[in-house]
Amino acid sequence: MAWKATGVAWAAFAPGTMRAVNIDGGTYLLVHLGTAAYALDGVCTHEGGSLADGTLDGPGVICPEHAAKFDVRSGAVLADPDAIVPPTGVADPLTAYRTRVVDGMLEVELD
């Protein structure tokens, strides 16, 4: 595992917001929730929708394509596409990554 720079300044990343970043050819979703930062795969596992274009709903991010919902803290599926709860396995969980702030900049630990 290696820590990777995101190019995102922690002080400029407002609570309750999210954004996509590209690192080493991959797309990741950064979420500032409360006082913590979370990082996940940035593409929905159902049909590849950009989660940065989705909606943050508490600790969940809702995909803009078909409304699958994922927990930003763990990547767990909270609702299948079309907001089906409990999830039945149509969407796979997202990978969640550790984050840290170094010299005011957000970093993500990637494989």
Write the SSE topology.
Layout (H helix, E strand, L loop, with lengths): L1 E8 L7 E7 L2 E8 L2 E6 L13 E3 L2 E3 L6 E3 L5 E3 L16 E2 L1 E4 L2 E6 L1
Antiparallel strand pairs: 1-11, 2-3, 3-4, 4-9, 5-6, 6-7, 7-8, 10-11
Brief summary of the model shown:
The protein is mainly beta and 111 residues long.
Provide the CATH architecture: 3-layer Sandwich
Radius of gyration: 13 Å
Give the DSSP E fraction (strand runs of 2 or more residues). Answer: over 45%
Named CATH topology: Rieske Iron-sulfur Protein
- The count of β-strands is 11
Tally of separate domains: 1
Average pLDDT number: 95
CATH class designation: Mainly Beta
The CATH superfamily turns out to be: Rieske [2Fe-2S] iron-sulphur domain
Overall shape: it is globular
Please report the distance between the alpha carbons of the first and last residues.
Answer: 4 Å
Give a written overview of the molecule.
The structure is a single chain. This protein is mainly β and 111 residues long. It has a single domain (2-110), classed as Rieske [2Fe-2S] iron-sulphur domain (Rieske Iron-sulfur Protein). 0% of the residues lie in helices and 48% in strands. The chain has strands spanning 2-9, 17-23, 26-33, 36-41, 55-57, 60-62, 69-71, 77-79, 96-97, 99-102, 105-110. The chain has a four-stranded antiparallel beta sheet, with no helix packed on it. The model has no long low-confidence stretch (mean pLDDT 95).
